[in-house]
Structure formats: C-alpha cells, structure tokens
Amino acid sequence: MSRLKPYAMSCPVSLSLDLLGNRWALLVLRELHAGPASFAQIRGGLPGIATNMLSARLTELCNAGLISKTRRLYALTDAGLSTRAILFELARFGRSLPAPDAPSDPDGISHRAVVFAGAIERAAGPLDDIRAQITLNGEPFALTVSGGRVALQAGPMPLAPVELAFEWSDVEAVARGDQRVAHFVAEREIAAEDPLQVAALLDLLQKAMDIYGGFK
C-alpha cells in the first residue's frame, strides 16, 4: 500500500504531516501509548481499519523509528513517546467537536491513556514523585510520576502505594467544571499506606483535569 504524496516542503509542520498525516497513523500511535500491544490488540482499538492498512502503518512507523517490534509486540520508542503532546492537544481540540451519530468506539479504555497521561504530564512538576494504580472504567493502569516525567501503562502496579478507581465520565465532569476531584473521590474507596501520597495524587489529578478542560 503506497503512502500519500508527501508535501516535500522544509516547513516543520509539513515534515510532521509527511510522517504522521497518513490515515490511521496517529491513531496507531495512540493505541501504543498505553503500553506494548500485539497486532490484534491494536486492531481491536481501531474499529474499521483493514488488516493491510494496519500492517502498512505499522511498517511505516517502525521504519521511521517511532515504533519498535519485539517478537509479536509493538511498542513506542522514545521518539514515539514524544507524540504524546501532539495527541493530547488533538484530544483537547476534539472535545469541542460534535461526535458522529453512530460512533464506533474502540475496545476497552486504553485509547484514553494518552489523553490522561498527557494531562498529567502538563500538570506534573519536577519535584512530584508519585506511584499509583489508577483504575479507569474497571481497567487498571500503573502511573509513575518522577522528575516531571510521566509513565502510564495498562495493567496493575504490584504493591502500589495508592490505588484509586473512577470512571472516565468523572474525568470529563471535572474537565467541564461540573465537579472537583475531591468530590467524586469522596464517594470511592482509596487504598493507601501514605496519606501524603494520596494528597499529592489528588492535587495532581485536579490540575491535570483542569488542563484537559482548558481551565489552565
């Protein structure tokens, strides 16, 4: 399957689009921001994509150095991880757009990982040091924040200092300004050994959701 004709300009925007502007390319990257995944798992997050199209995009992104493949798993490289900021800004912009009448939603909630991690990364300071298991819509994610860097991987975190579960609808409600993190957390159980870690996590989540909602 051939690529779209490149813009062939020296402008950085056009150079980025030459690599990322092909259909499905950014969405393939989106799926991998939740961690390594197999071909079948990636396809499950992209309803409507043909297998030959997905194969072509994975090959292109691997050749560009944004994705690596080990055995049957695809994973983002450091260069691929840097696309989180691009995807986060697209998500913020997309919040104001109308949804299709009959949307084809991806399997699970891994596609939300890049949005959530992008918001947390914007909110995190160089002194933040947090490890927590965040369960979104019943799916666990391991969150690590250290030195301003954020990692959010699908799957449980062994011996997590803090465990907190909530729904993506809670994130959107805070982003709209309808509620505060402290309000919906008060209705849920928090498993934690250190109250200071809990306070730091809740403060960071509030800042992140405010950023996602455009309040900061």
Number of helices: 10
- Give me the strand/helix succession: HHEHHEEHHHEEEEHHEH
Q: Walk across the major sheet and give the strand order.
A: 6-5-4-7-8
Q: Pick out the low-confidence regions.
A: none
Q: What does the oligomeric state look like here?
A: single chain
Q: On the 0-100 scale, what is the average pLDDT?
A: 91
Please outline the major beta sheet.
Answer: 5 strands, mixed
Q: So what's the overall shape?
A: globular
Overall number of strands: 8
Q: Roughly how many Å is the radius of gyration?
A: 18 Å
Distance between the termini: 42 Å
In short:
The chain has 216 residues and is an alpha+beta fold. The chain is 44% helix and 19% strand. The protein has 10 helices and 8 strands.
Q: Mind explaining what this structure looks like?
A:
44% of the residues lie in helices and 19% in strands. It has helices at 12-20, 25-32, 39-44, 51-63, 78-81, 84-94, 113-123, 168-176, 181-185, 195-212; strands at 37-38, 67-70, 73-76, 129-136, 139-146, 149-154, 162-166, 190-192. β5 and β6 form a beta hairpin. The mean pLDDT is 91.
Task: Quickly list its features.
single chain; 216 residues; alpha+beta; five-stranded mixed β-sheet; three-stranded antiparallel β-sheet; 44% helix
What's the layout of helices and strands?
Layout: H1 12-20, H2 25-32, E1 37-38, H3 39-44, H4 51-63, E2 67-70, E3 73-76, H5 78-81, H6 84-94, H7 113-123, E4 129-136, E5 139-146, E6 149-154, E7 162-166, H8 168-176, H9 181-185, E8 190-192, H10 195-212
Parallel strand pairs: 4-7
Antiparallel strand pairs: 1-3, 2-3, 4-5, 5-6, 7-8
